[in-house]
Amino acid sequence: MDALKVLSIVLVVLHVVDAAVIPCTWTQFRLRDLNEESIMLLEKMGASMPLRCLEDGWRALPDDVFLNAQNEDLAVVALETLRGVDRIFKNDQTSVTWDRETLGLFKNIISSRQVENLQKCVGEDASQSAVGSLSAGSSVGQLKSYFEELQEKLRVKVSSMPTKCQLQRTLVAKTHNLLETMTGPFPLQCLDDIPVEIRSPTWALQSNNSKQDVVAAKAVYKTLMKVSSLMENDGFPQSWDAEKLVKFQIIVDRQIEESECIMRIKTKTEEDDFPVRDAALTDYFEKVEKLLKEKEFSVCGWEVVRRELLSVLQFILEKNSKDFWPTRV
Description:
Distance between the termini: 21 Å
Strand content: under 5%
Number of helices: 12
C-alpha cells in the first residue's frame, strides 16, 4: 500500500484544482479549499515515498487528460477524478504506516464532502450521460481506464502481503479517551434518565483463560460494530467536541476494518460460546438504541449512551490481561 503514496495521486488532486472551473456555487467557494486540504493531508499522513517503490512501475496520470477536457463537461471530469481517488482509498490500508487519523480525515473529505457535493452540482442525469457515452479518447474514458489500472495493480500488490489480525489495546484506550473528553462530566439533570433496567453483559466481553481469548475477541469486535452503528445516528449534542467526535468515529471504524479477520478464526466447538455472547450484546445494544430513540435523541439521551459506552470500553480495557490482546490468524 506504500505505492499509493505515489505522486500521481497527489497530481490527480492538483489537476482537479486547476480543472474544476465549474459554474456551481459550491465549487466556486469550497472545492478548491477542500482540494488544498486533501493535498495537505496526503503529504502529512506519511513520510516521503520509499525509493524502492519507484521501481514498481506505477504510471502517472497523463498530463493531457485535463488539457483535452475543454470540449467536455469539466464538472463530470472532476467528479470522475475524485470518484477514482475515493475508490482507491476504499481499499484495505492495514499494511501501511500512515497516520491513521490523518488518513481518516482525508477519506472523509474526499467521500463525504467532495464527491457527494460535486455530484449534486453535476446532477445524476449529466453524470450518467457522460459515463454512458464515454470513449477511450475522452478525458472521462482515460480517467476511468487509469484508475482501473491503478486499482488492479494495487489489488495484486496487497494480495501478496501477509495478513495481520489483532485487537489493539492502544486504539481501544484512545477511543475511550476521546469519548470521555469530548464533553464534560455526566450532567446532573440527566440522572433520572439512567435506565435501571439496562445492564451491559460485561461477562460476554471477558476472557477468563487462554481458551476463551478468541471468543472474547470476537465479542469485542462485535461490540465495536455495535458502537459504530449506534454513533451513526444524527443529532449529537452541540456541547460535544465535533473534532473529537469525528476522530472517535474514525478510530472505531479503523478497528473494525483492521480486526475483521478475527471473525474467521476457528475454535473448538466445545469452547465456542460466542453465539451466546453475541446474543447478549445484541440485546443490550438494541435496548440502548431504543432508549435513545425514546428520548428523541435529546442531550440526556445521548449522555446516557455515552455513559454506557464508556462503561463498556472501560471494562474491556481493565478486565482483560495483556495476553488477551495479541490475536493472530
